Amino acid sequence: MEWLNAEEKDAWTGLVSLLLLMPGRLEAPLQQESGLSLFDYLVLSHVSEAPDRTMRMSELAHLANGSLSRLSNVVKRFEQRGWVVRSPDPDDGRYTVAFLTDEGYEVVEAAAPTHLRTVRQFVLDPLSAADRQALTRIAAKLSVTIPPP
Amino acid sequence: MEWLNAEEKDAWTGLVSLLLLMPGRLEAPLQQESGLSLFDYLVLSHVSEAPDRTMRMSELAHLANGSLSRLSNVVKRFEQRGWVVRSPDPDDGRYTVAFLTDEGYEVVEAAAPTHLRTVRQFVLDPLSAADRQALTRIAAKLSVTIPPP
DNA sequence: ACTGTTGACTTCAAGCGTGAAGTCAATGGA
DNA sequence: TCCATTGACTTCACGCTTGAAGTCAACAGT
């Protein structure tokens, strides 16, 4: 088995730093100002953009890039805070839908500027347009190889 | 505050998928075959490459992209398994050094092929050389903006 | 020489994520 | 019609990470 050449090692080392360090950086402002993790924010954000602010749990887990188990735990917390209501899908009782309450909407609305500022500061602004396009392309290639959850 | 345009959103969406999904993918084979997380492997790997297989904890935390707190907990586990020995640095008692035992070396040696195969499969092989160089460049730009821990 | 400060590191305690196990509704086959 | 299967989802229990608090050695100032 062949070890990494210099170019490969640079790419891998860069990526692993990104993977291990960037989440914490993105979360810190959100956590401090809104008490939300990045995943929390993504969940709230996606369901806030859904028709009638209602989305199936399975779809939500997929959009927020998390497992159903993780989502269930998170949404349970949100439900206890009155931000989300879960109920069986009227169209098919096998599914569960999550509905974002007005209170939950206010939470994500209040957190959005912080989130946006953080994303710009730590991700978008340091990169050129070409870098951003490359990042989009690379992420797409790497996602294709990721087996469905 | 201006919301993301399409290009920015694609880059951001791609990155966040990468950040949330890739770690799990990289870890699964390691976890199954060696019982190691990615961070576990990085810690063992870096100290295995140090002179005399000995490295200061602070340096090790930096190289493995983790906090001192996280590293301390991980190395404590390793110490209990006989893979690592911690002792005060003879040159300066304020520091602690981690030494990789023969047993610990065997663990990282045995895990390396799995790790390498996984990195190739999920990161390097799906990308062109240009992509890998772009990834290196992008990661460097994004790391520069990350404040020191 | 004494002591406050600083930085490295460990420990604590709480919250979170994970895989496994369990529950339930709908489907499909006999 | 019955029931095994399938897939969505929840819960459980354990291990891990985190930020805060605590400990210690060395340094710097008086």
Task: Summarize the structure in words.
Chains A, B: It holds the Pfam family MarR_2. The structure is a homodimer of 149-residue chains. Chain A is of the alpha+beta class. Chain A has one domain (34-141): Orthogonal Bundle (Arc Repressor Mutant, subunit A). Chain A contains 6 helices and 3 strands, in the order ααβααββαα. Chain A has helices at 6-34, 38-48, 57-63, 68-80, 102-124, 129-144, and strands at 54-56, 84-89, 92-100. Chain A has a 3-stranded antiparallel β-sheet with strand order 1-3-2. In chain A, strand 2 and strand 3 (92-100) form a beta hairpin. In chain A, helix 1 runs antiparallel to helix 5, helix 2 packs across helix 5 and helix 3 (57-63) packs across helix 4. Chains A and B meet through helix 1, helix 2, helix 5 and helix 6 of A and helix 1, helix 2, helix 5 and helix 6 of B. The structure holds a DNA duplex (30 and 30 nucleotides).
